[in-house]
Amino acid sequence: MSGAQEQLEIKFRLIDGSDIGPKSFPIATNVATMKENIISQWPKDKQNGPLTVKDIKLISGGRILENNITVGECRGPLYDIPGGVTTMHVVVQPPTMEKEKKMLSDSKQNKCGCVIL
């Protein structure tokens, strides 16, 4: 099979054990594109879904996948099972609000310690 036509069946396992997919992706597909696909297919009945690609971490084979690598680059021996479906784990981590960050930094700056002898 030529590399341009090769496809992988991937399903995305959510934290509650449910799945999105499986869906075929060309091996040239990058991780960011798969994350966009997850956002578009996120179940409507689940709360706290991801809003942007930055809110999602994909884990495969015990590794967190970077947005710029392709499916082909993160392949391992488990991907070479003919007709098999690869499972990637999805972790949603919404970014902390800027307000929360500011409050945390302000509370650290307002602390002082004095010792009177």
From TrEMBL:
Compartmental location: Cell membrane
GO cellular component, as recorded: plasma membrane
Bilayer topology: Lipid-anchor
Every UBL3-like ubiquitin domain range: 6-115
One Pfam family, short name: Rad60-SLD_2
Keyword Nuclease: no
PANTHER family to which the protein is assigned, alphabetical: MEMBRANE-ANCHORED UBIQUITIN-FOLD PROTEIN 2, UBIQUITIN-LIKE PROTEIN 3 HCG-1 PROTEIN
Name recorded for this polypeptide: Membrane-anchored ubiquitin-fold protein
Source species: Salvia divinorum (Maria pastora)
Encoding gene (name): MUB1
